[in-house]
Structures are given as C-alpha cells and as structure tokens.
Amino acid sequence: MNLSESLALAQLRLGAWAWVRGAAGRHRPSAPLHFSPGAARRLLLVSRPDAICQSQIFPFHFYRDVLHDRWGYEVREIGLATLLAQPELAPRGADVVCFQAWIDQTPEQQRAIVALLREQHPKARIALLDPCAPTDLRFAAAVGDAVDLYVKKHVLRDLDAYDRPTRGDTNLTQWYGDHFGESLPETHFVLPPGFRSKLVVGPSFVTAPYMLPRFFAVSQAPVGGTRRYDLHARLGGMGSKGWYEKMRTLAFERVGALRGVSVTPQTFVGKRAYMRELARCRMCFSPFGYGEVCWRDYEAVYSGALLIKPDMSHMVTEPDVFVPGETYVPIRWDFADLDDVVARWLADEPARLRVARNAWDAMHRWARSNAFVDQMERLLDPRP
Q1: Where do runs of H (alpha helix) occur along 38-170?
Q2: What angle is formed at CA 124 by the lines to CA 25 and CA 189, rounded to 5 degrees?
Q3: Is 215 domain-assigned?
C-alpha cells in the first residue's frame, strides 16, 4: 500500500468510525434531522440499530455524494423506534423512503408502519430493506403489496422456488432438517401478485461500516505473507434450533477430523481479536448460518484468506464473491469433502493466493465503481 492509499484509508476509517458512533445519536428521539428546504430530492432511511440492518444503511451514507451528484438526493436517517414513539419528529416530504423491519413485529405492525410512511410522505416511493435469509419472505407476505420495491440482500436463482412451501422457514431448514431426520412443519410465505417485479438485489455484509471503507480505499489485496494458521474455523455458537445445532456440530466434527492442518482454537474471542486472527490464516471455513451468506464470508476476503464454503450456486448476490474456483472454493453441504478440499488448496499456494486475490479485487472494483448506486437505480432513479 502506498502513502496516498494509506492516508485515504485513514480518512475513510475515521469517517466510518464517526458514522458508527453517530448512529446511536441518530436513534435518539431528540436528534432526528430534517431535510433542507432547498433539497432537490429527498431520501429518508428508517432504520434499526443492529449490525445486520446497519450494514444495509451505511452505503447510502458512504455514497451520499454520488447520490447527490447523480440525482440530487439529500440523505436523512431516523430510527424506527423513534419514528413509532414520536412520529411528529420525523422528516417530511421524502421522495424515497427505505424502512427496515424485524421478526419481532407482527404483520399488522408492519402494515401500520407502511401506512404511517404513506401518510407522512404521500408522493414517496417506499421500499422495504429486508435483512432476513434469502428464502425467508415473511415480510413480503405481510407488506409486499403495500410497498413499491422490496430490497433483498440475496435471492434464489430459481425464483419459482419462492412459490413453493418449505419444511421449516427456509430452504436450509428443509435441507438440513431432512439430512438429520428432523420433522419440521411446512411453511409457505404466500406472496402477493406481482411481487417478483418489485424484487431488487441489494448488497450484503460487504457494506458494513468496518468493511466498505477498506475495500474502497485499498487496491492491493492483503494476501500472502507469513500466516500462523492454515484454517480459520472459529465457528461460534451452536444456536437454539435442532437442525442448526446439528449442522454446526457436524461442521465442528469435520474440522476436528482434519489431520496435518493447523486450525484456530474454538474458544470465544472478541471482534478485534477475531479479525486479527483471521488475517493470520491461509484459509477460512464458513458454513451456513441461519441463512446462506455470513459475515465470515466477507471477513475472510477482507483478511486475504481463501474462502471455503458450502456450494452457493443456487444464490444470486451482488457483489458476487461466490464464483467457484475464482473467488471462493465450494464444498458439499454435508462438509464431507472438507478434508480433501483443505488439503488440495493448502498444497497449491499459487492457486490459493490467486483466488483470495480475485475475491479482494472483485470487492474493491465493486466498491470503487459506485456499483451500489447502480444497484439501487430502480429505487432511486426519479424517472418512472
């Protein structure tokens, strides 16, 4: 990294850190920001404070100058809790409103949120930013007919699958439930007519405040060098659902069966120690979570480790870091080939570094090209 890149990264890190610290303030009832009287166009973000939801919100702030230059947008944010507790404090007159929901809300509560936003912003295009797993469309079943667009972090390549019920809430509950002999009730999120035409693929965890600035600023992939561990496999908690606990237990067992491979410990460490450790690993094993895509996928790329993950060919995600043999290495969903894959890629350092570098470069090009703004064109372009 040269001096100019180092300075640019330091500036962006300071800006991201200030944004993260300021986010808490924006959720206080006393501190919502109203639009300027002279704003050409107005974008309101109605957000939740948790990390998953904020990773969807941050890029609107990060690329605010691009949004302004392209379409004249001024960006404002208010916490969902503040909006519901004191709606009189919320900005008015937005042209576009993006809001977030969570599974602790009933469909009636979600519809009430949309109704309130329609009342406050009668001319606005309204979109839901859905933070849930790809096939979990409970919010779409509740408000898909009431919003103009529906932004999902990832979608199934086979869109017809959304019209079919699953055993459990998602395709993962069905596959792993069947694999482990779990008897799960059938679930079907019935989608309103025309819903597919509203579906927009938004970015994933790559836009988190601690990742996007670095992907934007650093052109040289942080791969290679002296690394202590062959494989990062600090897999975290076991979860509280039967299929998930069994899936994670199986992942632990497959890792434990590896021979001749140095693997990270399994004890808990804090986030900073976790990221430092990941940067000292040649490869990273990232099994599914409650959805296919995990923080760890992008953290592996961020750290210059080769990403090893269950096959993702059924998913569409942008930016696409799941190109087999080019940006990641797929394995079977039951992890049965983990030992062979680890041994093969550990033995071929040039290939391993090439794929890790490709993944970094893909994220860097995406961040630098303002592709986020392009992805959101259907939402933000004022033309019908």
Answers
A1: 51-62, 64-71, 80-85, 107-120, 138-143
A2: 85
A3: no
Mark whether 191 and 130 lie in a shared domain.
Answer: yes
Q: Which residues of 17-27 are buried (b: 16+ CB within 10 A; e: fewer)?
A: eebeeebeebb
In the DSSP assignment, the letter for residue 263 is: B
Residue 356, H or E segment: helix 349-368
Name residue, tokens 């093969």: 344
Q: CA distances (Å), 282 to each of 142, 335, 342, in order?
A: 44, 19, 10
Q: In angstroms, rounded to a whole number, what is the distance separating the alpha carbons of residues 169 and 172?
A: 8
Question: In this model, does residue 29 exceed pLDDT 50?
Answer: no
Amino acid at 170: T
In a domain, 50, yes or no: yes
Share of the chain above pLDDT 70, in %: 90
Same domain, 168 and 305: no
Q: Is residue 41 part of a domain?
A: yes
User: Which residues lie closer than 8 Å to 86 by C-beta, 6 or more apart?
Assistant: 29
Residue with tokens 């995990």: 294
Tokens of 141: 């079943």
Task: Find the radius of gyration of the CA atoms of the chain.
Answer: 21
Query: What are the distances in angstroms from CA 368 to CA 135, 203, 215?
Result: 30, 14, 8
The 8-class DSSP code of residue 373 comes to H
Residue 171 lies in a domain: yes
Q: Is the peptide bond before 319 cis (omega within 30 degrees of 0)?
A: yes
pLDDT for the residue numbered 243: 92
**Structural domain for 354, as ranges:** 221-363
Q: Which two tokens stand for residue 170?
A: 């998602």
DSSP annotation string for 293-342: --HHHHHHHHHTPEEEEE--TTEEESS----BTTTBEEE-TT-TTHHHHH
> Tokens 């998953």 appear where?
52
Closest-CA residue to 131 (of 53, 232, 246, 226): 53
Is residue 204 located within the same domain as residue 242? no
Q: Is 261 left (phi over 0), alpha (psi -120 to 50) or beta?
A: beta
Looking at the structure of the chain, the number of domains it has is 2
pLDDT band at 308 (very low <50, low <70, confident <90, very high): very high
Tell me the β-bridge partners of 308. Answer: 285, 329
SS3 (DSSP) at 74: strand
Q: Is the pLDDT of residue 161 over 50?
A: yes
Residues 180 and 249 in one domain: no
